[in-house]
Amino acid sequence: MAGCVLRGPEHIFERANDRYMQLVGHRRTGQPPEERYVDFVYQVLRDPGGATTGVVVVGVDTTDRRNAEERLRASEERYRTLVEATASIAWNSPASGAFDTDQPAWTAFTGQTVEQHRGSGWLDAIHPDDREKSGRAWANAVAGKGDYQVEHRLRRADGVYRHMTVRAVLQSFLHLSLLGHVCMNAHPLPNRPIEF
Fold first, then answer.
1. In this structure, what are the phi and psi dihedrals at residue 98, rounded to the nearest 5 degrees?
2. Do 93 and 160 reside in the same domain of the chain?
3. What is d(CA 66, CA 37) in angstroms, rounded to the nearest whole number?
4. If residue 174 lies in a helix (H) or strand (E), which one and from where to where?
5. Are 90 and 182 members of one domain?
6. How far is Cα 19 from Cα 37, in angstroms, rounded to an integer?
7. Rounded to whole angstroms, how far apart are CA atoms 63 and 2?
8. Around Cβ 31, how many Cβ atoms within 10 Å?
9. Is-contact 24 34, C-beta < 8 A?
10. Which residues lie below 8 Å from residue 139, measured CB to CB, with a gap of 6+?
């Protein structure tokens, strides 16, 4: 943590610790400045009468954290772009297996609103003859009995059913806690007829 004390109306440095001097105090001349991100907290110093006598400045260098967050955002954007560029339907669920958030690709293909696919409502878009098999496979995957992999017919927004192969894998954090499932419907399967 970087810190310094400024005194008087001119804010003259009275003291600064080594970290402050490394972070702010030593500027290299003739070279472009290094970009750093620092969270500063300023605390006014007052004498017993309440008059301002100085300022304590404490700063925490957040550059590494900010850069890591930026790399994560860029990685997520690359993933999102890749998924949107494929001819597949990508969706996800929490560990419970119940749809609980907007699934734009799912909605675009099936026409189901968030309210319609919430919970296990997404099964209503599966062909009635495939629904039980798909629901059972999903329940097994959610119970931790393996990945979800199934072929079924999925109803498009126009009412036409398309053959799909679907795969979902568990998503965990450091292999310790289950975050949910990341899923992909590949469509349509080749050499399969369109059904109405």
1. -90, 125
2. yes
3. 8
4. none
5. yes
6. 14
7. 14
8. 7
9. no
10. 97
CA 128, 131, 133, 136 dihedral sign is negative
- Angstrom distance (rounded) from CA 120 to CA 98: 6
The arrangement of strands across the sheet holding 88-94 comes to 88-94, 177-186, 161-173, 148-155
Scanning the structure block, which residue is given the tokens 């309440």? 50
Q: Which domain holds residue 120?
A: 86-186
- The answer to whether the beta carbons of residues 59 and 1 sit under 8 Å apart is yes
Q: Per the domain annotation, does 194 fall within a domain?
A: no
pLDDT tens across 153-174, in order? 999 999 999 898 888 877 665 5
Say whether 84 sits in a helix, a strand or coil: helix
Strands (E), 62-160: 88-94, 148-155
Residue 168: closest CA among 88, 93, 86, 56: 93
pLDDT in tens, 90-142: 788 887 888 888 888 889 889 999 999 999 999 999 999 999 999 999 998 88
Q: Are residues 96 and 163 in the same domain?
A: yes
